[in-house]
Specification:
Layout (H helix, E strand, L loop, with lengths): L2 H12 L2 E6 L2 H10 L3 E4 L1 H8 L9 H15 L3 E4 L7 H13 L4 E5 L20 H14 L6 E6 L8 H13 L4 E4 L7 H9 L6 E3 L9 H7 L2 E6 L2 H20 L12 H8 L1 H11 L2
Parallel strand pairs: 1-2, 1-8, 2-3, 3-4, 4-5, 5-6, 6-7, 7-8
Helix pairs in contact: 2-4, 5-6, 6-7
Length: about 290
């Protein structure tokens, strides 16, 4: 079964796929352990892991390698966040070919110009490409995929750019007409009202994908009531949880002058060994080493 087919089967069975953001094989394994349906190979999270801005600084090779590793270690369908496609439609042809080979189940591409600026930053530059140009990118993505089940998601940033609902709907309809399998619509409003209005107004057949980072009131139950959403992405919670936990642990060690105070609230070494598969290593050493 291909990764794309696996994703589509989960969608058909559950009606809603929940993807947790990850930035490393370990975080992807923990997302799988928690019971999520898919992994969001987040460009924002990977940029943060490298300690650089989310402005197309991380290369395709870096993101591709991490996507491959997350797909391999988690066993879940991976939703690859390829930002603007790393260039124009010609770049998209190559990118989609490589991500499919790496084991991605879903490709998400947005209609901003390259290099992009992360969506939720206050006052950030949010330049959009022409509708026709992005349609060409979608068509290129469809032409590049070898597995017809690889899911192509067109992400419109019209609401992020302040262009309004009618522009967002216009773009979404054009992207579906170009062959997008799903439409991702994003918002930086602090309540779900703008997104819910878009979903209710959506008259296409393609399911909607949402990333409710800015409006945490958007629960799974609330999403299901909208009936048109097929993919729900928890977009950056792995890296944010990591930053919070490491800051607190590091500060406590510095304050107390030792590790005695943190030992009871962090993972044990044995727990990390288990995630690494060290028990299998010991078994295999007994079996094969002569």
């Amino acid at each position: 079964m291909t990764p794309g087919r696996k994703f589509r089967d989960v969608l058909a069975e559950k009606g809603l796929v929940e993807a947790m953001a990850s930035h490393s094989p370990l975080s992807a394994m923990l997302a799988a352990e928690a019971g999520f349906d898919a992994i969001w190979a987040s460009g924002f999270e990977l940029s943060a892991m490298y300690g650089v801005p989310d402005v197309s600084v991380v290369s395709m090779t870096q993101h591709l390698d991490m996507t491959r590793a997350m797909a391999d270690r988690s066993g879940l369908p991976v939703v690859a966040d390829i930002d603007t496609g790393f260039g124009n439609a010609i770049n998209v042809l190559y990118a989609v070919e490589q991500y499919e080979r790496a084991g991605a189940a879903v490709i998400v591409m947005e209609d901003k110009s390259f290099p992009k600026v992360t969506s939720l930053i206050a006052g950030g530059r949010q330049d959009m490409v022409r509708i026709e140009e992005f349609q060409g990118k979608i068509e290129a993505a469809r032409a590049a995929r070898r597995d017809p089940d690889l899911v192509i998601v067109a992400r419109t940033e019209a609401l992020i750019a302040g262009l309004g609902q009618e522009e967002a709907l216009k773009r979404a309809r054009a992207y579906e007409a170009a062959g997008a399998d799903m439409i991702l619509v994003h918002s930086k409003q602090k309540t779900p009202d703008e997104i819910e209005a878009f979903v209710r107004a959506w008259d296409g057949k393609a399911p909607i994908a949402l990333v409710p980072t800015a409006y945490p009131q958007m629960t799974v139950a609330r999403v299901k009531e909208l009936k048109k959403v097929g993919l729900l992405i928890w977009g950056n919670h792995a890296i944010r949880a990591s930053v919070g936990a490491m800051r607190a642990t590091f500060a406590q060690i510095r304050k107390e002058g030792g590790i005695h105070g943190v030992e009871s609230r962090i993972a044990t070494v044995d727990e990390v060994f288990e995630l690494q598969g060290m028990s299998a290593v010991k078994d295999n050493e007994k079996r094969f080493l002569r």
